[in-house]
Amino acid sequence: MKLCRYWLPDSGPTLGLVDGSLVYNLADADAETFGSFSRMLGLENLPDRAERAAARVRSRAGLLWNDLDVAPDVRKPHLLAPVTKQEVWAAGVTYFRSREARMEESAGGGSFYDKVYYSDRPELFLKGTSNRVAGPNAAIRIRKDSRWNVPEPELALLLGPAGSLVAFTAGNDVSSRDIEGENPLYLPQAKVYKGSCALGPAFVLADSVPDVQALIIELRIRRGSTIPFEGSARVAQMKRTLKDLVSYLFREQEFPYGVLLLTGTGIVPPDDFTLMPGDIVEITIPEIGTLRNPVAS
Q1: What does the radius of gyration of the chain's CA atoms come to, in whole angstroms?
Q2: Are 243 and 37 a contacting pair, CB within 8 Å?
Q3: Residue 164 half-sphere exposure, CB side, CA atoms within 13 Å?
Q4: pLDDT, tens digit, for every residue of 46-87?
Q5: What does the pLDDT read at residue 119?
Q6: What mean pLDDT, rounded, does the chain reach?
Q7: What is the pLDDT of residue 112?
């Protein structure tokens, strides 16, 4: 089952059921469950409640999905990122291609990435909070003090307060490779700033994905009428298991509203590529949809 967060001019943020080309307001059927994104993440019986609510709203009027595929504007319905009070965390060097790229970019610190790729403990870092996250069709940003910026398309996990896997969405861990490569201790500056993350366009409940390893992540970058880079990767190429990443994330941590975890990228543009203002970044996971964001400086 595919859900989304979207904005309605008269009522504000809303949780919706994505059914083909239509989106239905789930709060109309079950306000207790779907009136709050954070409350929804904490429910153990979410799939059952979602099915019952979906059965009630399918006979009602719904918005066209394409009508939500617009830049954020409080005067119009539009899609929102699936995050409110949650922190967004990220895992690094979980794919071999990412390990290679980090070692190549690093000025003398490449062995750190090799060690973390093969170690038991994963690299985990705080990526941002909701005010740093762009939703679908909103602008992501590249740093003005960086000359080498790339998108990092990733599968994102929506996790409940106790660590239960609630849903999957698409994410973009925008990164300044030259800043991180200069010194690994600069990673927070390379990774965490306003507009450095995007999430969406929808999220699929975990029990609706029979084999997460079969998911394919696709990246396409548009620059005017050209496509300077595109690539794809399978979740099956990830070295670590999702269960392992979640286990380490919840060690000595509490997430009362749940948390989102980006699971790493297996798609790395060549070293001569950098994002430019005006580019359009498209990250597609077919079961979830296409997360599309323009690039700003």
Answers
A1: 19
A2: no
A3: 17
A4: 999 999 999 999 989 999 999 999 999 999 999 999 999 999
A5: 84
A6: 93
A7: 63
In the block, which residue shows the tokens 């965390």?
89
Does residue 75 come out as left (phi exceeding 0), alpha (psi in the -120 to 50 range) or beta? alpha
Q: How many helices (H) and strands (E) does the chain have?
A: 8, 19
Q: Identify each DSSP E strand in 41-152 by its residue range.
A: 63-64, 78-80, 87-92, 123-128, 133-134, 140-141, 149-150
**CATH architecture of structural domain 87-296:** Alpha-Beta Complex (3.90)
Q: Contact 287/215 with Cβ under 8 angstroms? A: yes
Rounded to an integer, what distance in angstroms lies between the CA atom of residue 197 and that of residue 174? 6
Contacts of 217 (CB under 8 A, 6+ apart): 153, 154, 155, 170, 232, 233, 234, 235, 265, 266, 267, 283, 284, 285
Distance CA(254)–CA(248), nearest Å, equals 12
**Is 167:3 a contact under the CB 8 Å cutoff?**
yes
Could you tell me which of 165, 163, 162, 188 has the C-alpha nearest to residue 175? Answer: 188
Strand 165-173 with 153-159, pairing:
antiparallel
Percent of the chain with pLDDT over 70: 94
Tell me which H or E stretch contains 114.
helix 110-118
pLDDT tens digits, residue range 137-190?
999 999 999 999 999 999 999 999 999 999 999 999 999 999 998 988 999 999
The pair of three-digit structure tokens given for residue 168, joined into one six-digit string: 């999957």
pLDDT for the residue numbered 116: 79
Residue 238 has a CB neighbour count (10 Å cut-off) of 24
